[in-house]
Fold this sequence. Notes:
The protein is an all-alpha fold. It has six helices and no strands. The termini are far apart. The mean pLDDT is 79.
Amino acid sequence: xxxxxxxxxxxxxxxxxxxxxxxxxxxxxxxxxxxxxxxxxxxxxxxxxxxxxxxxxxxxxxxxxxxxxxxxxxxxxxxxxxxxxxxxxxxxxxxxxxxxxxxxxxxxxxxxxxxxxxxxxxxxxxxxxxxxxxx
Length: 135
């Protein structure tokens, strides 16, 4: 794994650990939040942890083919000529991970889904009005 991969893995691991281990400020002081707020916060943290896990898995899946081909080239298990046919595609897949991440963030965010649903389900005049208001 290259140094960028190590940085991503370590960063995501630290974020996940912090999400799962550190109590939020209002959980530390008893009575400062009701049980519904605590339950909602725990659910939100779990959702964020799942997004983090999904992003880490997608990162690994996108970059794994490139790293495998590079390893095979480095240990002379394959000829460079034959590997050069697939190497650009594996590199493209690795870089596609950068384009996939924002899509995952958007699709897994409730506000985005709500806004998208509103945009798709409204009549064309209402969409135009919404557009004008946001500009």
